[in-house]
Each structure stands twice: as C-alpha cells, then as structure tokens.
C-alpha cells in the first residue's frame, strides 16, 4: 500500500516539476531539459530528481547549476501545485540514459546500413 502511494507521489511530482521547469526563465536551462524520474523519500523530506539535458557537457553543467540555484523557487512553486503534507527538498542529478539510448539507436542504424 505504501509503495503504491509513493509511486503515485513520484509520478505527480515528476509531472508538475516538468511544468515548473518549462516556466523557468533561466538562460542556463535549455528547452531540451527532461525530467526522467523522481524518487521521493518515504517521509517526503527529499526528492531526488534525475534530469536529462541534451547538449555537450558544458551545457549540462550549466543547466544543473541553473536548476540548483532555482531550487528554492521550484520548491515553493511545487508546494502551491501539489497537495502534500511536506514539500520535499529537491536534489538534482544528471541522467544520461536518453543520450545512451540515442547512441545505441545510432549504432543499430549504422549496422543496418552496412548490411
């Protein structure tokens, strides 16, 4: 029962967080920034946010720095949008799974072209 509740909270936070990030006016955060996953702790005090940013390493670092600097605003905005007892503190981490998937897809396409 508790796992289902946390799973629903994770998905709701992910969905709303994507909307909040789209509305940010920080030039360091590109439009190609995606929220891959969110893991909220059982006590709702922290939420680890996995972010994918398309671009080079410098762009990714700038985007992560922009998200970290806007963490207070993001937390306040999320508190307004979702009805939770406690609004979690957000910890942003880069996720490279989308880039990895694109790389694997490119390798498969290259193999198919050779055959």
UniProtKB/TrEMBL annotation:
InterPro entries registered for this protein in UniProt: KH_dom-like_a/b (IPR015946), RbfA (IPR000238), RbfA_dom_sf (IPR023799), Ribosome-bd_factorA_CS (IPR020053)
Cellular component per GO, a single term: cytosol
Signal peptide (from-to): none
Keywords: Cytoplasm, Ribosome biogenesis
PANTHER family: RIBOSOME-BINDING FACTOR A, CHLOROPLASTIC-RELATED
Pfam families to which the protein is assigned, alphabetical: RBFA (PF02033)
Protein name: Ribosome-binding factor A
Subunit field text: Monomer. Binds 30S ribosomal subunits, but not 50S ribosomal subunits or 70S ribosomes.
Similarity annotation: Belongs to the RbfA family.
Species of the source: Candidatus Avimonoglobus intestinipullorum
Localization, UniProt: Cytoplasm
